[in-house]
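Convert to structure. Protein one:
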Amino acid sequence: MTPRRGRTLTSLRLLAALGGTLWTAATVGGARAPEEALHRWSRRLLKHLGVTADLTGPIPEGAPLWVSNHLSWLDPVVFLALRPSGALAKLEVAGYPLVGAGARLAGLRFVDRDNPFSRATALRALARDLGRGRSFLLFPEGTTTSGQGLAPLREGGLRMAYRLGIPVLPFRLDSPDRHYPWTGDATLMPHLRALAEAGATHVAVTPGPRLHPQDYPDADAFVAALRSHLQGS
């Protein structure tokens, strides 16, 4: 067996084992079991894939909603490893091999980005969850990029936070490793193989300041401030 094939098989076995762990953890425990399951699973997955999240500063408290630019399918895992939280993910994640079913059981919410009804339904669910005091994670670009610039934002969740008076904490993700971004028509398994072959991967996580809607005259100003932090400017 070649070293490359060995590393690929190791990654697949790891993902299968972690998928089973997520499935098991998501189906037992109390009311917070799904979020705690995602949190524990995310920490284990990053460790075993050799991905290190480098925080560039302290994370301000008191923001139920975290938002970030989007580079990779691993971005939610990075943030869910930092705190138990719900997350809004693209519909394709539900079909990922081995982990999709466990993610559904663990409470991950999915949205079809090209379906207006799906987006509206997801926003209503997000508002309900935040109103109940649940922490949540959102990627307003709605797609991954290479990190060079910012894709046009889907502003619905940000404007909803403004209307509801919910503080938001913006983050900026960057990685010095070219294999970390997952863009275009790339599929999961080749990307997982690239991570395994790299051996070590770093992603810088830069928290911005906690932004409160009451400090902005309107939703446009609030969204503009969030966009500025997501761009890293």
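Protein two, convert as well:
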Amino acid sequence: MAVSIDLGRKDNGQPALLDLEELLATRLLVQGNSGCGKSHLLRRLLERSAPFVQQAIIDPEGDFVSLADRFGHLVIDVAEQTEQGLVLAGERVRQHRVSVVLNLEGVDIEGQMRRAAAFLDGIFSVERTYWTPMLVVVDEAQLFAPSGGVEVAEEARRASLGAMTDLMCRGRKRGLAGVIATQRLAKLAKNVAAEASNFLMGRTFLDIDMARAADLLGMERRQAEMFRDLERGRFMALGPALARRPVAVRIGEVETESRGAGPGLMPLPETRPEEARALILQAPPPEMPRPRRAPPVPPPDILAQLAAARPAAPAQLPPASAEEEAERRRAQLAVLRSILADPAAAFRPVQSLYQDFQLRCRIEMLPGRPPDLAAFRRLLAVVLAGVTDALEERAEWQAALDYAARLPEDRQGAYLLLARAALEDEPCPSDLAIARVLGSISRGRGRSALEFIEKQGLIACRPDAAGRRVVTLIGPGWETAPGDPEAAVA
């Protein structure tokens, strides 16, 4: 059954329709500064789609609880629930196909992250029998999938980010369609934002956010200034569920009322100065004396206990030979290639991949200690570039690694991809192929990386007679075959 949701009107007066079935397969990202109308947009989408699809709303401010009166959503106040209880609630919500609002109001940021992660884990891990379509809307998504460090426990941050990554990267096969809204793209984890194929971009002012919004919509950088001029409730829309080209959309009216609506101006009460002084500066009521409590007993020093119980260090093993080191590297690369066989793995956080890699190395009983994080990043760049064991054994490849080491870690994979294409006489990688090595699906990210490497004097780009791109690696003198920069990833 084809269902189109009426979001409002385009500038030409035609209805702005959203294909609900396509949205369930491709996900949606909404971005805009506070006050631009993001919550109003989400409310319009939820109201119009409520009769057709099950919904779950992660609501940090309690703005969407009013949907319960009009559409019958179950409101779960997380302050009254344990994390285990929320996992079970998530499973039962899918089993019984009940639309729900997870009200996180009144809980601190760390508590919100832990409880949202528990609920998302529940709806994600339910048995295959219950993988029916579900719209999962996350307001203020930057709270649950931050791009950088936040002042919360690392365990809570990882749990929340992992749950959001699963929702956006692996949720489609389980019937979960993520709809995430954020005030700033720069604050949202890139691997979470990168999975959305539909975009509604509202008013924003910072240069970095305008540039990213323009990049996601496929617009020129000089057009990014337009995002400053968007009115409240007006968004630029693009995506398979919305429009094939960027189009301005004005969001329509809603049926329910938000508790987070901004207050209007109202006159001050007429209070004489004497009355105001008596009201504000009156003496506080007397307090009853409080009994003194004994200071709490400090918890035991776990680290000291572990150090005391640590067994004697074994005798130092002799250093491994060159052949053993080479064999260990091949085994580690094989483990990493098995992890990255999943197409979504390339967009997972490096820390998450590193933990998975360490676990699999132990399962495979690989000799020696796993590489540290810096060495793992270099292995990851080699695998993402598609380098084979046969290519690594060639004498020329060491030169490619030496030149790549002159670049920042996040650009080395792009250089190795170009070097592999040149040594194997393959066409020059497209912008999208370069972006994928960098953990992105943005062609602009691929072009930017190529320009950066060229400015470092390591490559030179030129077009051939047919307009295809050829890259020469300065130093080794290798050259790729001509390739289409706009080609898709195979």
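The chain has a mean pLDDT of 84. The chain is about 40% helix and 15% strand.
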